[in-house]
Amino acid sequence: EFVPEERVIIGTTEDNGAVLAPGHVRRGGVGNTNVGMLTEDREGFLPRLKEAFDSCGFHVKIHENIQYLIWDKLFTNVSLSAVTGILQVDMGFIAGNEYAWNLTKALIHEATAVAGSLGLSFDEETVTERVRQTSIGNPTGCTSIRADLRDGRRTEVNTISGAVVTAAKRCGVPVPSHEFVVNMVHAMEMKRQDSSI
């Protein structure tokens, strides 16, 4: 909206952390930070970005098709984060509960359909199994949406599940489960606000 596409850099990170107080962040885990551009990097900016981030302790990887990587990460976030937030449960609960898992599978189905309409092909069965293993492998894991709702903060639901809703509208793909979780998370944000009045 504000700059030409060739000036936009996007990415994901496997690093995680938590805000402890203004100006204080705890680094919770280390992984790769993946970056790419929406268009060809004609000015060679990404190698300079990598060098700067690497010198600060990050591990940057440059990707030609960053959109694919972002959607691949998004599948876990739009399913586990939203559902654990609404239910206020640990990540391990999702794969072990029939009803939570049904909603999770519906979210994955819709998200892979939207990605497909954008020209990004994912195997839904593979994605679903990876999300299930993430749930099983992190039995006490707490997602950001769950933590934010628990602690009375605004969530990132608009940039996670809401991103699927926005893309779906552009592509004409129905995503009723994603619309439900976005509305539910916002209702829970407002419930906390209303109860403090």
Automatic annotation (TrEMBL):
Cited Gene3D superfamilies: N-(1-d-carboxylethyl)-l-norvaline Dehydrogenase, domain 2, NAD(P)-binding Rossmann-like Domain
Q: Where is the signal peptide?
A: none
The cellular component terms of Gene Ontology attached to this UniProt record, alphabetical and capped at eight, are: cytoplasm
Q: Which ranges carry the Ketopantoate reductase C-terminal domain?
A: 65-189
Highest taxon, organism lineage = Bacteria
Q: Which InterPro entries match?
A: 6-PGluconate_DH-like_C_sf, 6PGD_dom2, KPA_reductase, KPR-Related
Query: By its UniProt entry, which PANTHER family does this protein fall under?
Result: 2-DEHYDROPANTOATE 2-REDUCTASE, PROBABLE 2-DEHYDROPANTOATE 2-REDUCTASE
The molecule here is called Ketopantoate reductase PanE/ApbA domain protein
Tell me what organism the protein belongs to: Hungatella hathewayi DSM 13479
Lineage of the native species? Bacteria, Bacillati, Bacillota, Clostridia, Lachnospirales
